[in-house]
Write a structure and sequence with these properties.
Number of helices: 14
Order of helices and strands: EHEHEHEHHEEEHEHEHHHEEEHEHHH
Strand content: 15-25%
Radius of gyration: 22 Å
Distance between the termini: 46 Å
Helix content: 40-55%
Number of strands: 13
Shape: globular
Structural class: alpha/beta
CATH architecture: Alpha-Beta Barrel
CATH class: Alpha Beta
Length: 393
């Protein structure tokens, strides 16, 4: 098995501290000391692709910049990195969305992955003009994704469902290749739709035993549909040369969070309708106490950030060991982040990935195309073969 690693573009700003925002947190709360400029996001993207990350997840919602616009621009200041972009059933027509995705895929020569975001919060969905309840949103997503997928095969689609209707829909150019669907969700409604449509099922970073149970749940649902699904996990990371240095960094981040901020954010997150968010909250209970929820699994990020709220914290060797454990229960793709996102990408890639490469679990996605290492010294005189022989003797 060769694992895939993806990074993250902080389109709300970056910082040396945890930047809040996400599920249940009001729009405008997120923000960092480093603005989300194309120049800075381009730095992260170029570093990520050089280091061996395959793609970058981009957040979506009222608390950050628009993912499609930003990723289209960042694609032009990077070369190989793919973009895991939010595909939001119900926010626009499936025909327009399919056309947008095809244009992005073809213009970037295959650098698009799609993160299906059905919407976990009623208040945010209503702000975008969507007034369906949660279960109905998943039912609509089922129809919406069917239409988009059929359009990418070149079919002229007429479809009349409960939530989605199109007549003689088609797109002018097909995507090459068809972008894969990444889909997360912990509710029964989410599981059913993920089993039918997802190429990769994503879970947030829960303890290994809980993740294993999710993997088996989705495997069973997919098998009933005659399908097989790959699995991925979304985690933050704090990787350092020693465990002591990593935990010191986690403590520094925690010390910078005041109790009032935690209370305000947790109050908002408690209203979340997302089953995954509820599972994240249950790990830490809104308290700074008992944040170690599994071996090297720290729930401190979730005190002030919605969505993925856990981090792998430890030495490079410890984090590599935890990745082995997740891989053993079926996880093949890791969507990671850490603050600041530029520096933490280097900490992880230069510290953890070489261990996984030595273990046979990872290789650089462009290893075959990479030039062989050379020991040539610039401007040094070139020795003739005769001289080389003489020196050898």
């Amino acid at each position: 098995m060769s694992l895939k690693f993806h990074w993250f573009l902080p389109t709300y700003g970056d910082s040396r501290f945890i930047v809040g925002g996400g599920h249940g947190v009001p729009a405008g709360v997120a923000g960092g000391a480093r603005p989300a400029t194309i120049s800075y996001l381009g730095q992260i993207a170029r570093s990520a692709e050089q280091l061996g990350f395959e793609a970058a997840l981009t957040p979506t919602g009222a608390w950050c910049e628009d993912a499609w616009i930003i990723d289209a621009m960042v694609s032009q200041v990077s070369e190989h990195l793919k973009f895991l972009v939010a595909f939001r059933p119900g926010i626009m027509s499936p025909t327009l969305a399919a056309q947008m995705a095809a244009s992005f895929q073809n213009a970037t020569q295959g650098r698009l992955l799609l993160n299906i975001v059905v919407g976990g919060e009623d208040h945010e969905q209503r702000a975008y003009g969507d007034f369906l309840g949660k279960d109905d949103r998943y039912a609509r997503a089922d129809e919406w994704l069917e239409v988009a997928s059929r359009l990418w095969t070149g079919e002229r689609v007429t479809f009349k469902g409960k939530h989605v209707q199109v007549e003689d829909a088609h797109i002018p150019r097909l995507p090459d290749p068809i972008p894969p669907y990444y889909f997360g969700g912990s509710s029964p409604a989410a599981g059913a739709v993920a089993a039918r449509h997802s190429d990769v099922y994503l879970t947030w970073g829960e303890p290994v035993e809980a993740v294993a149970a999710k993997v088996e749940w989705i495997k069973g649902l997919a098998a009933a549909q005659g399908r097989k699904v790959r699995f991925g996990i979304r985690l933050h990371v704090i990787a350092r040369d020693t465990a002591e240095a990593a935990w010191a960094e986690a403590q520094r981040l925690l010390d910078a969070i005041d109790p009032e901020t935690i209370a305000n954010v947790q109050s908002g997150l408690a209203r979340s309708q997302s089953e995954g968010q509820k599972r994240m909250l249950a790990l830490h209970g809104g308290s700074k106490d008992n944040l170690l929820v599994g071996p090297n699994l720290w729930a401190g990020v979730g005190l002030v950030r919605g969505g993925a709220g856990t981090a792998l914290v430890g030495s490079h060797a410890e984090i590599a060991e935890r990745i082995h454990e997740y891989a053993a229960v079926g996880i093949e793709e890791f969507v990671l982040s850490g603050v600041p996102h530029l520096e933490e990408a280097y900490w992880f890639a230069e510290g953890v990935l070489p261990i996984l490469k030595a273990d046979g679990l990872w290789q650089h996605p462009r290893a075959a195309a990479a030039p062989p290492p050379t020991s040539t010294v610039p401007f040094a005189p070139v020795a003739t073969p005769a001289k080389l022989v003489a020196r050898a003797e």
